[in-house]
Amino acid sequence: VTPKAGGWSRACFVGLGIGIKKPFTEVIKANIGDAHAMGQRPITFLRQVVALCTYPNLLDSPSFPEDAKKRARRILQGCGGNSLGSYTASQGINCIREDVASYIERRDGGVPADPDNIYLTTGASDGISAILKILISGDGKSRTGVMIPIPQYPLYSAAISELDAIQVNYYLDEENCWALNVNELRRALNEAKAYCNPKVLCIINPGNPTGQVQSRKCIEDVIHFAWEEKLFLLADEVYQDNVYSEGCQFHSFKKILYEMGPEYYNNVELASFHSTSKGYMGECGYRGGYMEVINLHPEIKGQLVKLLSVRLCPPVSGQAAMDIVVNPPVPGEESYAQFIKEKESVLNNLAKKAKLTEDMFNKIPGVHCNPLQGAMYAFPRIFIPSKAIEEAKAHKMAPDMFYCMKLLEETGICVVPGSGFGQREGTYHFRMTILPPVEKLKILLEKVKDFHIKFLEKYA
Amino acid sequence: VTPKAGGWSRACFVGLGIGIKKPFTEVIKANIGDAHAMGQRPITFLRQVVALCTYPNLLDSPSFPEDAKKRARRILQGCGGNSLGSYTASQGINCIREDVASYIERRDGGVPADPDNIYLTTGASDGISAILKILISGDGKSRTGVMIPIPQYPLYSAAISELDAIQVNYYLDEENCWALNVNELRRALNEAKAYCNPKVLCIINPGNPTGQVQSRKCIEDVIHFAWEEKLFLLADEVYQDNVYSEGCQFHSFKKILYEMGPEYYNNVELASFHSTSKGYMGECGYRGGYMEVINLHPEIKGQLVKLLSVRLCPPVSGQAAMDIVVNPPVPGEESYAQFIKEKESVLNNLAKKAKLTEDMFNKIPGVHCNPLQGAMYAFPRIFIPSKAIEEAKAHKMAPDMFYCMKLLEETGICVVPGSGFGQREGTYHFRMTILPPVEKLKILLEKVKDFHIKFLEKYA
Question: Where does A75-326 sit in CATH, by number?
Answer without folding.
Answer: 3.40.640.10
